[in-house]
Amino acid sequence: MDLVIRDAKVVDGTGGASCRADVAIDGGRIAALVREGAGRRPSARRVLDAGGLALSPGFIDMHAHSDLALLRDPGHEAKAAQGVTLEVLGQDGLSYAPVDDATLAQVRAQITGWNGGAPGDTSPDFTWRSVGEYLDRLDHGFDGHGIAVNAACLVPQGTVRMLAVGYEDRAASADELTRMKQLVAEGMEQGAVGLSSGLTYTPGMYASDAELTELCRVVARYDGYYCPHHRSYGAGALQAYEEMLAVTREAGCALHLAHATMNFGVNKGRAPELLALLDKALASGADITLDTYPYTPGCTTLAAMLPGWAAVGGPEAVLARLQDPESAARIRHDLEVTGSDGCHGVPIEWDTVEISGVRDPGLAGHVGKTLAHSAAERGEAPWTTARRLLIDDRLGSTILHHVGHEENVRQIMRHRVHTGGSDGILQGDKPHPRAYGTFPRYLGTYVRELGVLSLEECVAHLTSRPAARLRLPDRGLVREGYRADLALFDPETVAAGSTFEAPRVLPLGIPYVLIDGRFVIEDGRRTDVLAGRAVRRTDGPAGEGSGGRAGRAAAGRAGTVTPRDTLHTNS
């Protein structure tokens, strides 16, 4: 054997009781698991004494914004040090494939605040245009040696609409819809695991339910899933959830709700209503999962707060409207009085909007302050400060949006179809601490300190349950034959080191992380191992009435840990 981990507290990902065991690894897979006292202990070229550390499957980040970070930072400690061994990219309907040259420039400008990579930046090289070429680029990674952690990706619906329709707020023509369906099918055939949307972001928000349903029908043929950031997490949030349930029910498509929560004052204490809605759909046979992060503030770009009509035409059109006094006055009214669709139908409260990062270093004086605070320092209205910042930073500013509720966070994370997702934005001088702390915070704060979940339950939420959603045949469990993507952590000390004041601090209590049996974290330090690869869907479209639909329903009903063999990892 290559390696034996002795005397580990194995938390195997099923949710069942942990056990003391030796785990042997050979050829990148788990070769043997021998419980304490159950037989001859395995031997290997290397033996690691776990000393009672918990050994679990590596954590799967179901909502990551590392689309470019994985190609710029070989260390990627923000995720590797948390025990994350797989991230799902292409979130919120906006990412970098499929594109043409013009669309790539537009999407780079629009989501600079999420990922960097603004037009003019030279890293990474942006040599790809299709989903398959992007996945190939991940496989190549750094000088052909791979990337820090494994990555799967979703086809971004907003980018697809940008490519086929543009930034116009109108229904797609029949030819444009055909083109979008073709792009989604191509992305799925090239290895994407599903389709994402950002329905409070342009241009994805301009799609009708009928259009989304047609795209989801394509995804369903490939046994993929739809992952919407839906139309509102504020006013009308429950109706927005109902809308996504209806779209996927009509399309026969699996549904995974992104960062599923109930925010803003109008939704305080209303998590039980959301969970009742989901339970009713699950009881009827719907295939549903969701992800959340264990924090109350959200994080996005300041430009995302603007009304959808103001973004018609793309980033340059937004800047032109902000500079036009009449248009700017209309934007302000929508933000402060009506409640813009970008701000989830709720009138903006400037004291909840904290600037977390700026593209222009000359604007760093805003970072760490709410817009209300920055405006008071300047003796002006918050809108005046916000408008100037949007223009001067060319829409590149990111924000923390303090509109969540702790009781909602706790109730939703207990649900049986819940999974973990960081929604981690790594850009900015003061990023959200969830980018560095989500998974240890679950284990330290919500398991050890608060007892919201047991250790075994929590590990299942972060491992086997997302593996089932992704149809991974050989990840998500500590089981013989499975890939040795593993995390070793101390249940008594594991904790998020990152805070809102110091968000880039690495976690505590996770001394070892392995991908394909190779140490990417060893003795608490990042090694130079680049064991990550692109994880691709490899099966073709399923025929109507095939086993795919039954498999989807089983995953949603029970959080099954026996997914179909439909994914493949290049190695």
Automatic annotation (TrEMBL):
Database matches in Gene3D superfamilies: D-aminoacylase. Domain 3 (3.30.1490.130), Metal-dependent hydrolases (3.20.20.140), Urease, subunit C, domain 1 (2.30.40.10)
Alphabetized Pfam families for the sequence: Amidohydro_3 (PF07969)
Region (Disordered): 536-571
Coiled coil feature spans: none
Annotated ranges, domain Amidohydrolase: 46-521
Signal peptide: none
InterPro entries xrefs: Amidohydro_3, D-aminoacylase_insert_dom_sf, Metal-dep_hydrolase_composite, Metal_Hydrolase, Metallo-dep_Hydrolases_sf
Name recorded for this polypeptide: D-aminoacylase
Species of the source: Streptomyces halobius
